Structure formats: C-alpha cells, structure tokens
Amino acid sequence: MSQHHPDSLTLMEYSAGNLSEPLALCVRLHLDQCPYCRSRVDMLDSLGAVLMEHQPRVSLPEGSFEAILARLDQTPPASAPPPRPAPLQALLGRDLNQLPWKRQFGDISVLDITDRFPDQPDRVVLQKLAAGGKAPAHTHRGNETTLVLQGAFADQNGVFRQWDFVALDQHHEHTPVAVGCEDCITLSVLSAPVRLTGRFTRLLNPFIR
Amino acid sequence: MMDKTRSAPARVKERLVTTTDQNPTRTDSPRDPWGQLLENVGRHQDRAAYQALFEHFGPQIKYYAMANGLASHADELVQEVFVSIWRRSCLYDWRKAAASTWIFTIARNQRIDMLRKMRRTRVERSVATDDLWQIPGEYEDEPVTSLHRLMSEKRVRQSLSQLPEEQLTVIAKVYMENKSHQAVADELEIPLGTVKSRVRLALNKLKVILQDQDS
Ligand SMILES: [Zn+2]
Prior knowledge:
heterodimer, A: alpha+beta, six-stranded antiparallel sheet, B: 2 domains, globular
C-alpha cells in the first residue's frame, strides 16, 4: 500500500466535489490503489450525506415523480457493473512510456496535458525522470500536487513510490532523484510556476515533479 | 398511480431474505431502512420502494442543487439523480455503503456532471465524471471495511449535533455550497488557516478521519 496519502482537507474537498478535475484525477488514481484512503473518503461521504439530511427540504413540483417514471421506461436498470474505469488510459490512450515525451534537459522529459482539462486554471504536466537521473534543486511558487504513476523518486522528504500522493508548496526545496531501474513518471497539477533556486534559474518549466 | 402489484413477486423476496439471513454481518450491523428499499429497487424494480426513496431524498437533493447555484436547474438535477439511482440500484450493496451515503455521492456526481455539461467548450471531455469521482463500493469487495463504513455514518449522525456552530458552518459550506476552503475563508472574512483548523477540529471530533500523517 501507498505510504504517502492526501491530507484530510484534500479528501474532504474531493468528497464534497470541490476539487478541480485534474486534482480529482490525482485523488481518484490514488484511491483506486489505497484502501486506507478509500475508507477515509467513505467516512467523508457519510458526512456529506448527514449534512444533506440536516438541510431544509424543498418540495418538488406536482408531477415530478411521474416525469421520472416516464423516463425509466427508456432507462433499463444496469444488469452488471460497467467496466472498471481506467481514467488514465482514457486520458492518455496508450502506454505511458510511449507518449510523445519532450526532452527538456538532462534526464528530464515532460508532456503538458493541460489542454485535456478545459475550463480550469491548473496546469497539468506529466514528467519523466530517467532511471537514476537527477533533477535540479528547485522550490515551488504555488501549490503543486503530484502522483507517482511509475517507478519511484527520492528527495530530502523521503522516497515516493507508485501511487504515492505528494503535496508541495513554496516552503519545500528539493532535488528529486529517480530511484530503482525504471524511469520515474509523475502526474503533476500546478497552481503556479516553479521557481528554481540553483544554476538553472533562467530555464522555464523545469522538472517540477 | 403507485401500484403494489408492480413490485417483485413474493417468491423472489423470500429467496432474498434467506440469503441475507446467512450473512454473518447482518446481526452486527442492521441495514438501514433506506438501504432495504434501495435493494428492492435494484433487485425487483420495486417502484413503490423507489417512490418512498424519492419522497425522502428528492426534497433534500433539490435543496442541495439550489444551495449550489443550480436553482434554475434544481428539479432537473433531482430527475437526473433519480434516473441514475434507478440505473445503478442493482450495483448497490447495503454492506458497502449506507443508502444515504451512496445517494449523496450520486447527487454530487450528477451536480458535477451537469456543471461540466453547462461549461462545455470546444474540447471533448476525456475523462468521465464517474471516473473522477468515486461512488463507494462499486468496484471493490472489502468485507472488512464495510462494517466500519456503516458504523461511520451512524457515528457521524450522532456526533454532528455536538459540533460548535462555527465548525458546523464551515463544513456545511464546503459540502452544501461547494465552496473551497479558500472561498469559505473569503466569505466569512477569516484567515484560511482558521478555516482549516476548524475543519480539522470538526473532523477530529467526528472521528471521521484518522490523524494525518504529514501534518
Ligand atoms: Zn492513501
């Protein structure tokens, strides 16, 4: 099981349905692999249900139920669960390693997929750090949420493996290194650009894991 | 209008009872009455049970829609939620989620879906709403946690009334008005840190959440 989880506040925003689509995707991908967080979200969903129950009730217009019944005749109940969703495949369509990666510098490749999430302000980037590769030291100007999709990386804060959930803000400075024999691929959602602290300061959009 | 003869044949019901009696968790966690109705809808297309659910949850969902800025689409949202409940009811398993929890997540997803459709621009969505927001218990079989889940709803219900008003206000805004923590802070004119600490206090008091690892 994953070692790094979203915090309660993030899960609450997820349960309430308030997260942006890319952040919801990060949480959902983590949940699919993490029974611990699934049970936390279940409890938060219960909180939502109980809060809804405590609100005032608003009566429905005459004939509402009949209108629904009329629609049911065209809506047979599902007889089996729909196939298990594979949101990542739906989004990327193929093997992670076969994507049209753009080499940035050194060991880092990136693929900006912000355009898959229209009508929202976050930047969404896939990043690949080659096995054994190292990214330059940097800090973060805004909030950044990262989910490890493949491989693992290590930095001053620990080791982050597949499906680990990492939230960073401007107080974190780090120098990620890909560990293990696989390339490390991450999905990052950025609310503001990264600020470099080392000699790469002039470069835009570096490995912002 | 609602005709009892439309509900499922008696022999199917008998078989259902036998099955559940054999379930060891049944005595530990009596199913809630809404869960029973929901299962009747799922297994027998029981329209009387469906109507009872509609009368109980419909007005709640309408308020939820109105609080979320969907006032002019509130009746439409209620309709979408109930069609979705009908369609998914056979996937509902009372051991995996309390009925009201399950219905809340369907209402949430339909609200998100409606807003996504209203905002839709040139680009096709690549990920479906239900693939982003999970409906509890649909793709898993975890008997160990299921009991825990049913208990959690009971516990939340019992302890919610003991929360201080200021904490309740904050979490109700997050859930019912779908305001982010930042938006709640702006509206109440209090720092974001205060909002977050009220939420954490509330969650701790509700024992909804185990201690965060990273905070
Ligand atoms: Zn987790």
